[in-house]
Amino acid sequence: MNRGKALPKLELSTRQHQLLSAYLNKRTVPKHYEQRIHIILRAFDGWSNRKIHLEYTLHVMTVSKWRNRWLAHYKDLCAYELEEKTTGALLLSKMLSLLSDQARPGTPSRISLSEKESLVALACKKPEDFGIPLSHWNREELAKFAMKMGIVQQISPRYVSKILKKAGDSSSQK
Questions:
Q1: By three-state DSSP, how is residue 162 classified?
Q2: Contact between 52 and 63 (Cβ < 8 Å)
Q3: What share of the chain is helix, strand, coil (3-state, %, to 5)?
Q4: How far apart are the C-alpha atoms of 152 and 144, rounded to whole Å?
C-alpha cells in the first residue's frame, strides 16, 4: 500500500536536543511548548506524523505544521547556534520563539497609549473635582466624561474597565 512520499528527516544538533529535553523536564512548561517540543523530539527519533498524532492525541495537521516550521528554519537556527555570543539560554529562547504562535492579524487599537494614560490619570482624580456628584468613578461616567473632555473620541464603558484593569495589573507588578 502506498502511503505517499517519505517525510524529510528532521535534524537537531546535540546541543539543541539537550536544551529542548532539559526544558521539558522543568516543572512549569506551558502546554503548547510541551506539545511542540515532543513533536520535534519524536520527529527527530524518526516517528511519522501519524504516530506522533496518535501518541499525543494531536491533529495530524498540527504535527505537520510544527515539523515543517522546524525544517524551514533549521539552517538559520544552526547558523545562530554557531555564533560566538550564543549561550544556551539564547539558543533555547530562539528555539522557543520558533515554536511560538505567529502574530495574528487584527484591527489596530483605536486608542493610543497616551490616551490610555490620560484615561488612567483621570480615573485617579475624584469626580467631585469636575463637578460630578459622585464619590468614585464608575465605568459609564468615566467613559462619558473622557469623551466629553476630548481625551478619547469614542470608548465603551467595558473598554474603560479593561484599560484600568491592565493599568492596575502592571502597577502592582512594580
A1: helix
A2: yes
A3: 65, 0, 35
A4: 10
